[in-house]
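From: lab user (bench 3)
To: helpdesk
Subject: output format question, protein + magnesium ion

Hello, I'm new to running complex predictions and I'm not sure whether the block I got back is the full result or only part of it. Here's what I submitted:
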Amino acid sequence: MGCREKGFVVWLTGLPGSGKSTIGKRLADVIRSLGRRVEYLDGDLVRPWLSPEAGFTREDRVRHLTRVAYVSHLLARNGVVVVAAFVSPYRDVRDRARELIGDFVEVYVKCPLEVCIERDPKGLYKRALAGEIKHMTGLDDPYEEPLNPEVVIDTSILGVDECVDRILDYLRSGGYL
Ligand SMILES: Nc1ncnc2c1ncn2[C@@H]1O[C@H](COP(=O)(O)OP(=O)(O)OP(=O)(O)O)[C@@H](O)[C@H]1O
Ligand SMILES: [Mg+2]
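Helpdesk reply: Thanks, we reran it on our side. This is the complete output you should expect:
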């Protein structure tokens, strides 16, 4: 009980390599196993469909994230739980997503830049540091930390399961689950 079966959005934001996808996928699986309808939206999978023309300038990122926010809104208002994993580096875009969506749980997937660079799961930092790509968040593009996120998880300290549990705890105590 206590489950209002209302849609909501868990928005994971953080530096590349911080752990958004790793945590987001796991979180989506757990919520699905509770019997909820869940859509997992991941930057890597969604971008080619919603914003195939987009690069990584501020303007392009804002346009892309605005589309993602709108799709998340459509899903959530139809009872779907959305888990969204996007670097989403700009505070104002995240705030506008929050305004549009309402039931919005911002999770700051926090991790020191040095640790992200060490992990470098996609080799993007390496390429950026070699000067092969531009607009790399954390290097030559800004990341604006959330000021008032619902949840902060430091993935350089906590294990993946612990991170997922922290988010689940918040969702339960907030009446989302
Ligand atoms: N507590 C943790 N939570 C999440 N990932 C962790 C944690 N500890 C170590 N890792 C590792 O860190 C890496 C995070 O990569 P992941 O692809 O999830 O990052 P990301 O934030 O989705 O990056 P990107 O923005 O480039 O998509 C993985 O290799 C994962 O195994
Ligand atoms: Mg990812």
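A quick orientation on your result: Residues 14, 16-23, 43-44, 85, 87, 119, 121-122, 155, 158-160, 163 surround adenosine-5'-triphosphate (ligand 1) (CB under 6 Å). Let us know if anything else is unclear.
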